[in-house]
Amino acid sequence: MVMEIVCPAGTPAALRAAVKAGAHTVYCGFADETNARNFPGLNFDRAEMREGVAFAHAHGSKVLVAINTYPRAGSEALWHRAVADAETAGADAVILADPGLLAYAARHHPGLRRHLSVQAAAANADIINFYAQAFGVKRVVLPRVLSVPEIAAINAETEVETEVFVFGGLCVMAEGRCSLSSYATGRSPNMNGVCSPASHVEYHEDQGVLDAKLGGYTIHRVGRDDPAPYPTLCKGCFTAGEKTNHLFEDPVSLNAEQLIPQLQKAGVTALKIEGRQRSRSYVAEVVKNFRAAVDAVDAGRPLPTGMLARLSEGQATTTGAYKKTWR
Amino acid sequence: MDLTVGPNAFFWTAEQQTELYAALETAPVDRVVLGEWVCSKRLPFYQDQIPHWISGLMEAGKQISLTSLALITLKRERKATAELLEMGVEVEVNDLTALAYIPAETPFSVGPLINVYNEGTLIWLAERGAKRICLPPELPLDSVRTLCKVAKDHGVIIEMWGHGRIPLAISGRCYHARLHGRTKDNCQFACEADPDGLDVQTLEGTPFLTMNGVQTLSDTYACAAHQLPLLREAGVGALRLSPQSVGFVDLCQSYRQLIDGKLTPDALTRTLQGIVPAQRLSDGFLTGQRGVDWSGSTSHI
Fold first, then answer.
1. Residue B56: CATH number of its domain
2. Nearest residue of B to residue A73 by CA position?
3. What is the ipTM of this complex?
4. Any B CB within 8 A of A278 CB
5. For A4-170+252-326, which CATH superfamily applies?
């Protein structure tokens, strides 16, 4: 069976572009703090969601709605409404992380398929099976801390479908379990749907040196004419011991395109592309490439190579934890 | 209000830990959580001592919990987690995986690394058998207030991170190993040289984070002294103190005096900074704009 390409859409235009480019599935979120890409100008209002789902379905594609932040105490109704509205819009599934919200969806919307978000960081077969038993979860998006053999081992022990990230931004910390951003800026992925937010970024140039700061902390320093990566905390430059370097991760993004055959052998159902904040032309280009790759693998042809490097953040890519040496 | 000693986050020798738990037998704390919550590779170095620490502390009248690891991926880690219950003491869940091995309605506690952000999750855990929940350090006071009300209705005690470097992230990658040009599997226990973690500074030389193998903590030591009246009013039942290598028992005594009204928050912070002179403090997650902020008069930056 051809592996499913799960593609991001931050706007209705990106959704249409992704569907036309051959995405089997598109994921998106409502324009509020219920989703983990709560950026200005992004995401869908209720009418756009209904129209987006109708468009995707008319073209044979599915739509998943990410409601994957952790509901704020006292304001759970906002998240509950998002689940109800996703069902009304005709979504094929919701992507949830919070156990309380999963329990709510299972109880009040039993007919709505539930996927476990990467923000839940379910990293072994026992917890995945537990989520399946407790909340009827049908698919899990695996955290980016696992190697390909570990993914294969998980698939051997569970009936739950697995979806893995293959392209785009790379969290090096277990997802949904990182407070670095709120420690430095007060805004966090779990609570606000943002990480290292642009509102807290400053650049300072002095004598030909460009400093990038996040929350007042200088975490990148380059020559004036060098490319300056976005100051994401876990990919910043720090000093520890005698060393000054990218101590957690280099400013790289994930590209596991070459591992598609191995991921298929490992029993993975779906390949996920990160980037709801990306433009529709980027989304279309990435989808076309990945669709061509999974079709090639399915037909027993060799993979096309090097197609996506220029689309990657900072031009540098990694296969991340999929190769064990990353750890 | 109770005092809980959280699990030691760092790689200490069996002797260092034996010393800590022996000293805690007579310290004014009510509850001790022990075991390994950061890296399963450390466990073989002291695992056989855990039953001795438990029996000593229990004889001294302390409540005991055994923590799960914070991130469970490997087969041997799953097995070790499943076997926690066999020790005969309450398990503190710090990766939800542990719940998969705890039979329904067996009482357990929930540690600060479980995402309990709202009423729905709290109630789900309570119905599953949670008797005590240490909320995530990231939570603002408004959320703490709301959750305390719900917890009371469900017979759950709420605990808050009271003192110690704040666990901010957990990863599959070992940063100590990476710093030494090694991988996690061949780490050669690079973290053992840093009993309170390794300082991580920004490019301006500002202390910022602390490296601890696969875990990343804050540079600052959280200190909830100034929020104590608010936490008490909210219904928080316990403060958690996270072990540090210097003066920890004195620190426990100071917090007990604070709770008993015998020490002011400013006096407590002066005491803390007397124990470790360079210790920078924070309480921003509770009442500040950002986690690193500090509301006390004793400046730290």
1. 3.20.20.70
2. B118
3. 0.96
4. no
5. Aldolase class I (3.20.20.70)
